[in-house]
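lol ok so funny story. i was supposed to be doing the assay writeup but got distracted and ended up predicting the structure for this chain instead. priorities right. anyway since i did it might as well share w the group, maybe its usefull for someone
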Amino acid sequence: MLDYDAEADRYDETRGGVPRAEAAAGAVLRLVPPEARTLLDLACGTGLVTERLVRPGLRVYGADAAAGMARRAARRVPGGVVLADARALPLADGSLDAVSAVWLLHLVPFSAAIVAEAARVLRPGGVFVATVDKDAAHDVGSDIDRVLAPYRSHGRAFDRADPITATAATHGLVPAGATRFTGHGQGATPRRTAENLRRGYYASWFDGPQATTDALAAALAALPDQDRPRADPAYRLVAFEKRPVTDV
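and the output, tada:
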């Protein structure tokens, strides 16, 4: 797992910057009902997406467990960011109209606990919006993906749509729509993929020994066009609505 405090200063420039953030925020807002008045963006990172979730009538907040990220987000969302674990939010039951979790559930083995906590803080009729199947989205069928395929297991991903949907159901959250958005600037290059592999960036699907890491890095280094980005991924975003207690 990356040290997100250490990553804070360079995070935006290595993750697609504003174009990707705008695409993500636009997709989230397509799934947030127009009558929603409050939204909490979990694992808000530097706030680049969070600040773009603001629309007339919607008060947006952010929460992140990494102090470095939360500090940067607070500059973009003044007075609206809290340092908090997504499994234990400092909020009352039923206090929010919407909760978003973009690029979060794939990172942690406790994704079910995050879904449960989102359900707790949502009012009946509120929505939880989250990306699912993120690792699978990065497999665009390129030459890079063919090198990584023997070691890439989407089946063990923490954010697989079916288990997330099942977990949501146990907490009174039912499917309420889905959309996709382009991960602008996220098209992989062989050189950057090898560097990220060595840095532990792919911890959600790769935990091989150093010898395997070295072998994969060498195979990636042998590919042509080392700095040419392959296709951008298309991320999937799903929404779940909290049913009234009498309907659960």
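The first strand starts at residue 38 and ends at 42. The CA atoms of residues 63 and 121 lie 13 Å apart.
back to the writeup now i swear
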